[in-house]
Amino acid sequence: MKKKILVTGGTGYIGSHTAVELINEGFEVTIIDNLYNSEAGVVDRIEQISGVRPELSVFDLCDMEKLILFFKKNKNIAAIIHFAAYKAVGESVRKPLDYYRNNLLSLVNLLDAMKLFGIPNLVFSSSCTVYGQPEKLPVSEQKEILHQKFADAGWEAGRILKALDNDTDIYFDSISQVIAPRWSNGRCAMTGDAAFCPSPLTGMGVSLSVLGAYILAGELSRQSDYKQAFTEYEKIFRPYVTKIQKLPPGVPKLAHPKSKIGISIFNTVINIISSKAVKKIGKLFANKNKSSTDDTIELPDYWKQENA
Question: Rounded to two decimals, what is the model's pTM?
Answer without folding.
Answer: 0.46
